Every structure is written in C-alpha cells, then in structure tokens.
Batch of 3 targets.
Target 1
Amino acid sequence: MTTRFSKNNEFWESQRSLLGTSSSLPPTPAQLYKKRTSSLLTTTLTLILPTSSLLYLLLPSPSASLSFLLGGLLGLLYLRGLTSYVSNIGSSAITPSGDLDLSDAGGGSARFAFLAMMFIVDRAVPGKFTLLAIIPAFFMYQVASVIEGQREWEE
C-alpha cells in the first residue's frame, strides 16, 4: 500500500533525477552578444596595453606611448558606446505598433565626439601628445574586430 507521502516522495526523487540528467539550454542571442562584446573589448585592451608599453620601452620620448595609450583608451570607450548602442537597436528602433522609430538616430554623432576629442586634446596640450600615435591607436578596435571575427569563423 502506497501512501500519499510515499507518492510525493517518489515524485521529488524523479524530479531530482531529471535535474541531474538534463542538458543545459543553448545560450540566447543576448547572451551570445554579451559574450562576444566582452571578448571584443578584452581583445582590444590586450592589444592596446602591450603596444603602448612596447612603445614606451623602445622610444626615447614617452609622449608617443602616452599618445598611443590615450588614443587606445578613447577607441575602447568608443567601442563600448558602439556595442551599447547596437545592443539597443532591436528594442528601441521598433515601436509597439511595429513602426520604425529613428528618433535616437543622434547616437552616431555622440560616438563621433570621441574622434573629435582626440583633436581637442592634441590642441589643448600642445607638445604632449603625438597625433600620429593617437589616431592609429584609436582604430585598434578594428584590429581586435578582425581577430574576433577570425575566432568566430574557426568555431
């Protein structure tokens, strides 16, 4: 004779066994995007820091390495803003009625401000920064993007 208590106990035992054998769910697109974004930001940072350190060791003046570091960090901030903007495109560009709302289209000009900021810093502190080192460092995120694209291709 089985009692209600033993049936309840059997139920929970079967649930525990199911829990132990279940496979994990595949990641959602948002989780994949977050993983790729953090990987891209990390790769960019790992390109900027050793390169600026190497410039500091090889060149007699530290201004080029500091300029490279400044440009790289501005590029990293630009990339962070860009990834935040892209992650919000799907949710904010389409209204509940299904229409396309481009009222937030000014995000591009805010991101462009990082590029303008490089020139402002160069002019505000004359002789301290080298514009020829700032500009390539700013675009190091593009190199990191190619590296991450290659990693995705290999997966």
Note: The chain has a mean pLDDT of 79.
Target 2
Amino acid sequence: MKLLLFALCLVSVGTLPRPPLTRVPWFCLDGADKGPCNADYKRYFFNKTSGRCENFTYGGCGGNENNFWRRRECIRSCIPMPKDRENRSVHISNKP
C-alpha cells in the first residue's frame, strides 16, 4: 500500500506544470576577469549572482570569454529569452 501511494505521488509530481528550462552558456558563468594587463577598457560581463549584465574594467589581455564590448551583446549571449517571447508573433489586421 505504501509503495502504491509513493508511486502515485511520483506520478502526480511529474504532471505538475514546470517553468521552461533555460540554459546559460558555460562562459557566462565565469566571473569578470580583468586579465594580467593594465589597460582601462570598459566592458560588460554576465553576473550570475544578479542575473544581469554589468560593467567592469578589462585590462586589455587575457581574461575569459565572459567579456563583451557592448551590454547588448552580453544580454543576447547570456540572458535567455523567456519561452513565451520566443514564439510570439504579431497579428496584423486588414480591418480599417
């Protein structure tokens, strides 16, 4: 009887709606890395703690791939678009 109840619980949990899984590319999970050089370039990185693209100072060499020239590039690369927005289409009516 306990086994039957356990099985029913597993089945019911499996049928609950789940939010769509979103995956962040591996390089977006690295922290900001200035690198060994001493230049002073404004760049953007994805902050996995805040879930946002933030600016940091890049030294000009080395570092890692979580390093973007523009915030827009960081957002496109590291912040997944919600599933409901990916497939959204615009309906254009011919009515005046």
Note: The longest helix spans residues 2-14.
Target 3
Amino acid sequence: MAKRDKQRRKKPKTTYTLFITSLPNHILQNIFSRLPVRTIISCKCVSKEWNNMTNDPIFKREHFSKKTVSPILRTFEPRFWPTDLHLIEAICTDDLVFHQELHSKISPPHVPFTYVPNELNISKFGIVNSCNGLLCICTTPFNNPIYVCNPITGEYIMLPKPKMNPGLFCYQMDEEGKSELYMTNFVVSGFGFNPKTNQYKVMRMMELETTQETRYVTIQVLTLGSTSWETIGSIQSWDSIGLRLEQIGAPIIQEASYKKSFCVYLNGAVHWLCNSTYNTMFIASFNFENENIVEILPPSQLRYQGKQGVGNMRLGVLNDCLYLTDVDSYVNFKIWVLKDYNDPKISWTLHLIIDTISLNIWPRGLYQPIKYLQNGDLFMFHPSNALVCYNPNQKTFRYFKIHGIDSDFEMVPHIPCLLPIKDVVRVEDPHLHILNIRSYFTTSLFIF
C-alpha cells in the first residue's frame, strides 16, 4: 500500500516541444542556407522575421557559398523560340519524379537588340555560359554577347555597343593608316571572372573579312563596368585555335540560330573543345587574367580522335574539376577528370566508366554530368531530353522524362545567387547601370 502511494506521488515527466521558430537566428540561417531557392522563397512568406533573415546580405552570401549547382533548362527549336528558362533544383534523387514537372521558371530580360541587322531584331537569345551566379546572354545567330544578368533577381547589365558587329559592314584603319572596308562575321564569346582583380570580363572573338577576301580573327575583351571593348590581339584563322565553322555554328548553317551553350568556366578561364588540322583534338582555354589562349592536352587515349571524336565528347565541371566525357560506340561511357588544374604535366584521371550495354539501359550514348547528389547519385542530362541518375555503387540507373516539353532542350550548369548584381560584381563605377525587369516596387525574386 505504501509502495503504491509512493508511485502516485511521483512527479509526472515534463515534455518539451521545440519549434523551429524557437531556434537561434544563426542556426536558422545555417539551415536555410542549404535549401533550394524555391523553398527559400516559400519561407519568406511564413513570417516577417524569416523574410528579413532571407533578405539579409549575410544570409545570401552564406547561401551562395554552398555552391549548389542547379542547372538551367532552356528549350529551343527553329520555329518557336521560348523566352523562359527553368531552374532544376535537385538535392537528392527523391526530389525527382518519373515525369518531372517544370516549376521554377525564370525570365531573362526581353531587351531590343539595338545593334544587329533589322531582320535579326527578334526576341531570340543564346546562352554564352554561366559564371558565379550570372549568365551572359548573346544574340542569334551570330552569338554576339549583349548583356549579363542574374536570372534569379531579374537584374541585368547591358554591354556597350562594339565598334564592329557581326552581320554588318564597317570601316577600320589598317597598319598604314588607311581605311578599309570589313565584313564582320560570326562571334565566339566567353564570360568569366579574374580572381586576382575581382573583375568580371567578357571575351569575344570575331572573324573579319576584307574586300580583298582576306580573313583574320580579332580578339576583344570587355571589363564589366567599362564603356568600351578593348582589342587585345588577333589570330590568323579559326583553325589557329582549333575551331571549325560547322563546329561553332556559323551563320551559313540554318541551325546556328539555336545552337547550344559553347564553353564552360572554371578557375578564371573559359574552355572549349577543339580539333586541329592534324586530326588531333585538344582543349583551348582563354585566361581572363593573362588574356591569352592556351592549349590543354586531353588524355592521351583521346588525343588523336580528331573531328569525329570531338562530336562524341563533352566538356564540363564536376566537383570543381574540369571533366571530359567520351563514349565508345555507344557502349562505354567514360568520365575523365583533371584534378590538379595547375599541374604542368596535365594529369587526367579516369573517374568513372559506365558499361551501358551490360546494364541494359536506355537511353545510351553521350551523357552530360551535372553534379553528384547528396545520396551519391550522379545527376546527368541526355540529349534525348531526359534526366538520368546513376548510382556508382549499385550500378543502377533512374530515368526521368521532362513532362510537357516537346522540343529539344539544353542544360546549362548554374549556381543560383540571391545577391544583387552590385554585390556580386563589386564595381564602384558611375558608368555601370544596373537594370531590372521587375518594377522597383516589387521585392520578391523573379522566379515562380
């Protein structure tokens, strides 16, 4: 009896419920910085405190420091030209479904192409490449860069009008001081960052053809914030840097108006695949610090693939390393990685081999690796308009079809940035005029 009374007198256990709103601000900020952009935008609507926290520049910098790759999807076809981009935010394979819907739509600025021929004054655009959360946009079909934008915030910077533009006749002084008529042709361009000076730059190479039918390629560089392009040199021909007109999509080719993104940025330089006149392939790199073009040798097994081999390869960035993919007769898909970028020996490592025949998977062929997901799956894009997740340990594939898209599309690796352009570019220049496709009364991000 006494024992029973003693049990009755025991104090009841106290339970505590911890709400996420009770967490300290620095812990909340750390949690939120790992979330996708779409989720952060939803959290802004929960409370005034969360809205203020996600608007804090310190939070935005912490979110960007995670460098979470979220590729941008852009559809393209000859007759219909959509002007919207879509952000694919996948952290693990469970974030994807078999018929993937496109939710996060971002709209690049619709600006008039004021310095292109009238017949090309249409709302078509191309993507040069992505760098540190910014996109460089170009005209089509000549691929002339016209503005740099942050597709998340809707801000953009118009690039100054060059003196020479593709598709137009222009006069230029030769070495003897004589004025000569030139016809400007196709442009190859790249967008990047010089970490030594903290400057963003746009490079463009353009072929000039004189009335005497002589041709050469001039190279120009624009520092973001300056008012004019600087000519830094010239090369004899596209062949000098391993380019072919059909490879870069010259305007004489009908499909040029919807060509895919051409180069990739890494470590202060843009890179592209090339094949020389000696039927060998290499990687060309334009360095934004030295403003020169250097040659990077591929793995020795791929050196003599030539023109046909370049068509079966892809260049990209995976885990902050330059990669090169190759496929043998649609059987073995290989990923080569350049881990030490500054190693003068250029030592490539065979990172992964996928035997697509033994796995009995579809689609086969050439994949474009995007990133590794948190569960270890390799997230890739296939030209059949599909997303693929490959598990290297279990050697299994999961295939995801994009729902509601009938046209072809490309995937451009991108790191979303919530910071305004002025905080990214960091240029205190009165000539730098930042525009926005949204009204200044709007505070929400231009993504939905």
Note: Confidence is low (pLDDT under 50) at residues 111-122, 244-259, 439-448.
